[in-house]
Task: inverse folding
C-alpha cells in the first residue's frame, strides 16, 4: 500500500517565487537569478516530501507562471507574434503581454480559482518538441535524481490540453491536431525513459466533464499510440475535480496505461463507475481520498473505508490526494493566531502529505499502531458553530425579486443623470507601497487606528480627485483599506477566520489568502458604509458602494463541508443584504456586488448545473432585492468562459453587468444579445492583467464592436477588472485613453 500526491504548491513558504518573479519583471534581477530561485524551491519541496515518508514524489509540477503555458512552450505552440522574443521574455509576454503585444487569453482552471493561459491553436499550428523547453521536464527529473530522489514527472495530458485550447480561426477544432500533438508527447516520454524515469503522470481532468463519443475516441487513439511505445515509462493518467465518465474509464481500463488516478472527494460516484466497468484488473489505482482543494482534516475512517472498498476492484492501490495540493496553503504550522476550535479542524498541504502517509501505513497489515492512531484522530476535530437567529431570519424571507426593469431603468436615468456610454472603473485602484505600509504599521501597532483611518481617507480623497480630473462619470473610492475583495469582508463577518500566511496562487505572481468559512455567517456591524459615505461627501458625482457577492465569497474561501453550499450562500447573502440596506440609507445610489466566480463554481456536468444556478442566482437576488428602483445595482464578472451561464447572468437581474472582454475582443457582448439580455452591459475595453497601456484607438475599436450588439443607452465603458495590481502611471494613462475613446464614440452615436 504505497502513497503519493498529484502535485504540491510551488510558490515557496515565504512566497519566494512571487518576489523573484516580480524582481525579474521590474529589471531588478536577471534570468539566471530567477532560474536559481526555481531550483531552490524545487529542491526544498522534493526533500520535504521525501522526509515526510511519501513513497512516490511528483516532479515538473513547478512553474514560473502556469502549467498550461509550460505545455504550450514545450510543444512549441507559440503564436507567430511572439516568435521575435526568446526565453523568459517570450514566456512572460505570452502570459502578460508587453506594450504593443497583447497576451494570450486567461481563464479559470475548471471550477477552481486558479487561472491558466489558454493555448491559441489554428490550422497552421505544427507541434514540435522545442529543444530549450524540452529540458524542463527532463531537467527537473534530473535535478531531483541528483539529490537522490526518484520522481514521477507530471505533464498536462494531450486530450485536456487540446480541449482547453482556443481556436485562432473561427470554426477550427483544436482536437483535430491530436495526432501531431501525441507524436510530440511520444518523443517526450521516450526521452524521459532514456533519462531513467520509471513513471510519468499525464493529467486528464477534462475526463470528469461531459465528453462526446468523438472525444472518447480521441482519448482511445491518443493512449493507444502512447501505450504502444517500445521505450517509455509506465503511464499514470490522473483525473480529478469530479466523477470520470463511464466511457472514459472503460477506455482507460482497456488501454495499455499502467495506472489511473480517480478523485473520491469531489467524485464519490467514481466508486460506482469503477464497479460498472469491472474495476481495473492488472492496473494500479491512485485513490484520491485526501482532499486537495479544501483545508479540512481528512475523515480518515471514511477514507480508509473507501480504500477498503476499492481493494477488490483493482490490482494495486495507491493512497493519494484528490488533486494537486496547489490549491491549498503550504503549512498550518505557520499559523499562530487561529482559534483552537478552528485550527483543530484544519490541514494544509504539508499536513495533507502526512495524512496520506498515515493512511497508507494504517492500511498496511503490518502497521496496527497506525490504524489505532487513525481511529483516535477521527474523533478529535471540533464542530461548526450554529447561529439560530440567522437560520430563523432566512426561514422567514420569501421570494427575493426586484420590480420591473423598465421602471427601474427610467427611475435610475432620472436620479443619476448619466450620459450614454457612461464611464467607470471596476472598484479598486493601485495599492501603493504607502498603503501597504500603513496597513502593516497598523497591524504591528506602530500607528494608531486614528492615524490609519486618516491615511486611508487621504488616499480616498486623492483617488476621487484623480477620477474627477480624468472625467469619469461614476466614481469609486479605490478600496485602499481592503487587503483582498473576499478576505476584507471575511474578517468582519462572524463564522469566518483569516490566515496570516495561507497564500495560494491565483495566477502568475498573484497570490491570495482565502479565508476559512467554518461556522454560520452573520454581520455584527456595517463593513463599508463609513468609507463609502466619506467618498461620496467629496464629490457630486455618484460613488459606487463596493461589495463581494455571496457566490464569490464561497468560491474564494475554504468553505465548511458539513452543510450544502446553497445554505451557506444564503447566510452570506443575508449579511450582504443588510450591508446594502445601510449603504442605501447612507445616500449611496450605485452599489456593485461582484460575482466574478459565478461561472467558476459551475458544476462540470450538465446534469448538475440547473440546481447550482438556481441557488446561486437566488443568493444574489436575496442580497440585492431590498433596494429602491432608483438605486442601481451593478455586478462584475471576469476571466471565465461565460457562454454556459449566459441565462444566469440575465437572471441575476443586476441593472448593469460589467464583464471581462478585452482579450476576447467583445465576444461575450454578442452572446448576451443573442440570449436576450436586456440590462446594462460594461464589456471591459482594457485588459488590466497586462502591464501594457492600450491606446485610445484600441479601446475605441472595442467599443464599436460592442455597439454592434447593444444600444448606446445600455453600454458602459470600463476596464476588465479592478486596478489593485497595476501601478499609477499606467493606470492614469490607460484611464485617460478610456475616457477619450468613450467620448469619441459617444459623440458619434449622439450626433
Result:
Amino acid at each position: 500500500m504505497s502513497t503519493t500526491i498529484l502535485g504540491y504548491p510551488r510558490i515557496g513558504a515565504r512566497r519566494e517565487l512571487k518576489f523573484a518573479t516580480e524582481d525579474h519583471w521590474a529589471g531588478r534581477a536577471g534570468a539566471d537569478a530567477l532560474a536559481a530561485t526555481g531550483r531552490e524551491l524545487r529542491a526544498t519541496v522534493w526533500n520535504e516530501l521525501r522526509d515526510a515518508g511519501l513513497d512516490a514524489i511528483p516532479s515538473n509540477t513547478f512553474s514560473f507562471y502556469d502549467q498550461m503555458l509550460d505545455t504550450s512552450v514545450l510543444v512549441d505552440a507559440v503564436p507567430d507574434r511572439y516568435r521575435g522574443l526568446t526565453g523568459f521574455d517570450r514566456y512572460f509576454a505570452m502570459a502578460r503581454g508587453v506594450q504593443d503585444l497583447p497576451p494570450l487569453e486567461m481563464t479559470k482552471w475548471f471550477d477552481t480559482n486558479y487561472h491558466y493561459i489558454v493555448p491559441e491553436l489554428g490550422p497552421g499550428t505544427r507541434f514540435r518538441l522545442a529543444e530549450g523547453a524540452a529540458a524542463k521536464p527532463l531537467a527537473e527529473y534530473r535535478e531531483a535524481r541528483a539529490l537522490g530522489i526518484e520522481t514521477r514527472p507530471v505533464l498536462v495530458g494531450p486530450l485536456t490540453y487540446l480541449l482547453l485550447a482556443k481556436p485562432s480561426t473561427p470554426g477550427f477544432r483544436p482536437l483535430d491536431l491530436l495526432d501531431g500533438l501525441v507524436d510530440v508527447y511520444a518523443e517526450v516520454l521516450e526521452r524521459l525513459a532514456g533519462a531513467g524515469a520509471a513513471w510519468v503522470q499525464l493529467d486528464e481532468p477534462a475526463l470528469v466533464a461531459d465528453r462526446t463519443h468523438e472525444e472518447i475516441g480521441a482519448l482511445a487513439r491518443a493512449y493507444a499510440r502512447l501505450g504502444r511505445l517500445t521505450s517509455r515509462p509506465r503511464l499514470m493518467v490522473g483525473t480529478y475535480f469530479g466523477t470520470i465518465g463511464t466511457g472514459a474509464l472503460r477506455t482507460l481500463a482497456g488501454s495499455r496505461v499502467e495506472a489511473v488516478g480517480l478523485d473520491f472527494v469531489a467524485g464519490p460516484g467514481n466508486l460506482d463507475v469503477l464497479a460498472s466497468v469491472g474495476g481495473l484488473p492488472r492496473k494500479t489505482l491512485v485513490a484520491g481520498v485526501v482532499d486537495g482543494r479544501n483545508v479540512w482534516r481528512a475523515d480518515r475512517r471514511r477514507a480508509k473505508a473507501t480504500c477498503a472498498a476499492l481493494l477488490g476492484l483493482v490490482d494495486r492501490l495507491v493512497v493519494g490526494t484528490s488533486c494537486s495540493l496547489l490549491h491549498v496553503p503550504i503549512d498550518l504550522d505557520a499559523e499562530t493566531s487561529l482559534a483552537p476550535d478552528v485550527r483543530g479542524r484544519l490541514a494544509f498541504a504539508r499536513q495533507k502529505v502526512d495524512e496520506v502517509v498515515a493512511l497508507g501505513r494504517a492500511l498496511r497489515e503490518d502497521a496496527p499502531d497506525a490504524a489505532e492512531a487513525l481511529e483516535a484522530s477521527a474523533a478529535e476535530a471540533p464542530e461548526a458553530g450554529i447561529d439560530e437567529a440567522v437560520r430563523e431570519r432566512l426561514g422567514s424571507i420569501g421570494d427575493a425579486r426586484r420590480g420591473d426593469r423598465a421602471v427601474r431603468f427610467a427611475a435610475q436615468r432620472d436620479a443619476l443623470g448619466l450620459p450614454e456610454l457612461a464611464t467607470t472603473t471596476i472598484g479598486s485602484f493601485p495599492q501603493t507601497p504607502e498603503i501597504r505600509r500603513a496597513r502593516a504599521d497598523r497591524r504591528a501597532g506602530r500607528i494608531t487606528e486614528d492615524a490609519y483611518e486618516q491615511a486611508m481617507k487621504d488616499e480616498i480623497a486623492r483617488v476621487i480627485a484623480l477620477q474627477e480630473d480624468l472625467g469619469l462619470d461614476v466614481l469609486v473610492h479605490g478600496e485602499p483599506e481592503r487587503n483582498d475583495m473576499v478576505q476584507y469582508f471575511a474578517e468582519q463577518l462572524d463564522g469566518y477566520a483569516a490566515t496570516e500566511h495561507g497564500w495560494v496562487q491565483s495566477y502568475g505572481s498573484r497570490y491570495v489568502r482565502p479565508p476559512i468559512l467554518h461556522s454560520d455567517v452573520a454581520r455584527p456591524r456595517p463593513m463599508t458604509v463609513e468609507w463609502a459615505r466619506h467618498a461620496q461627501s467629496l464629490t457630486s458625482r455618484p460613488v459606487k458602494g463596493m461589495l463581494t457577492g455571496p457566490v464569490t465569497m464561497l468560491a474564494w474561501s475554504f468553505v465548511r463541508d458539513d452543510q450544502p453550499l446553497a445554505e451557506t450562500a444564503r447566510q452570506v447573502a443575508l449579511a450582504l443584504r443588510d450591508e446594502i440596506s445601510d449603504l442605501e440609507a447612507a445616500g449611496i445610489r450605485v452599489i456593485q456586488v461582484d460575482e466574478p466566480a459565478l461561472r467558476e463554481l459551475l458544476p462540470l456536468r450538465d446534469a448538475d448545473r440547473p440546481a447550482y444556478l438556481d441557488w446561486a442566482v437566488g443568493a444574489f437576488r436575496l442580497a440585492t432585492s431590498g433596494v429602491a428602483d432608483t438605486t442601481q445595482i451593478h455586478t462584475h464578472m471576469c476571466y471565465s468562459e461565460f457562454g454556459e451561464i449566459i441565462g444566469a447572468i440575465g437572471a441575476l437581474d443586476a441593472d448593469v453587468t460589467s464583464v471581462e472582454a478585452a482579450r476576447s475582443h467583445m465576444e461575450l457582448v454578442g452572446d448576451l444579445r443573442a440570449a436576450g439580455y436586456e440590462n446594462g452591459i460594461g464589456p471591459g475595453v482594457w485588459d488590466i492583467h497586462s502591464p501594457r497601456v492600450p491606446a485610445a484607438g484600441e479601446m475605441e475599436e472595442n467599443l464599436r464592436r460592442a455597439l454592434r450588439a447593444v444600444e448606446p443607452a445600455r453600454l458602459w465603458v470600463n476596464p476588465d477588472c479592478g486596478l489593485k495590481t497595476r501601478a499609477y502611471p499606467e493606470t492614469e494613462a490607460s484611464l485617460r485613453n478610456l475616457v477619450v475613446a468613450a467620448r469619441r464614440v459617444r459623440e458619434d452615436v449622439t450626433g
Observations:
- The chain has two domains: 2-377, 405-431+469-725.
- The domain at 405-431+469-725 is CATH 3.20.20.210 (TIM Barrel).
